[in-house]
Amino acid sequence: MKHTSRRIFLRNGLLLGAGALLGAPALRGAYAADAAPLTLYNGQHAKTTQKLVAAFTQATGIRVDIRKGSSTQLANQIIEEGSRSPADVFYAEESPPVAALAEKNLLAPLPKDTLDQVIPGYTAADGTWTGVTARCRVTVYNREMVQASELPSSVLDMATAAWKDRVGFVPTSGAFQEQLIAIKLLKGRDAALNWLKGLKQYGRIYNGNMAAMRAVERGEIATALVNNYYWYIVANEVGADQMKSGLHYAGPQDPGGLITVSAAGILKTSRNPDAARKLLAFMVSRAGQEAIADTVAEYPLRPGVASPFDLKPFDALNPPPVSPADLGDAADALALRREAGLA
């Protein structure tokens, strides 16, 4: 996936910004105060979605009923509910659960003017879902336990005897499984399986990304494979200048630097598709992107919207050539984990 240069990125932001609350004029207009609320199945972080929904309701008058769960759990629930599902919109922490619904023909096509608000390469090939914000896979490391110069340029080299008992990972994490599929796409299935087996043999399993992040910060383990924003959560608590850990970005186009996205789509069975389209348009509008960016250290996917966090510039990440659409529903991740004895 080719990434937009900073010059084009900023230029597009200026071009899109003028019209935009803009994702669409349809965001404005009358809405009956007694109309039934939208039902949003939410797999994204609760605080992030609550801030987004509050801004949306204030801007449009449309009420939203949020039902929280894990992204995978909610996707499975929608599949089981079928045409009886009360869900209007599905907002997932990662793209594969949304892609799984698209593959089962459960999502409605999104308006082109909504999809066009997002940086190219971060929407579904068939237009049934869109990325909302992006994050980067990183290695967080304890500066008192390992020097930055010791860290390998490839995440593949961390599943080796040289890093025995020095790497934390979360095999159940959706982003970890996306990274696994990226390795499979780039290096082949055997390489992905061997990487998993190496991590199982030499690494240390954690039951959550925040647990792994905090373990590195307190010196329990030297490094962990997480998303970039977990470091910023802890930094916000204790102060960035007090952090004992830092962020290491993998070498150019290495799967260790995979960019993944939160994603959203509209159910074909939505009882209120007009309001659902307004919500999706708001998610990628300037106001929606700013509401999300204020709560979490992820990258806005609308050109011209900046994060208030001191993130590494998006166009400086140099990720592997694997897009969220390439990852699909990441179905083989579970099979690989089982084969490696990690399921």
UniProtKB/TrEMBL annotation:
Using the record, list the residue span of the signal peptide; answer none if the entry has no such feature: 1-32
Alphabetically sorted, this entry's keywords are: Signal
Q: Which domain of life is it from?
A: Bacteria
Query: Which lineage is the organism of this entry classified under, starting from the top rank?
Result: Bacteria, Pseudomonadati, Pseudomonadota, Betaproteobacteria, Burkholderiales
The answer, when asked if RNA-binding is one of the entry's keywords, is no
Name of the protein in its database record: Iron ABC transporter substrate-binding protein
**Any Pfam family hit:** SBP_bac_8
Q: Which family is this sequence assigned to?
A: Belongs to the bacterial solute-binding protein 1 family.
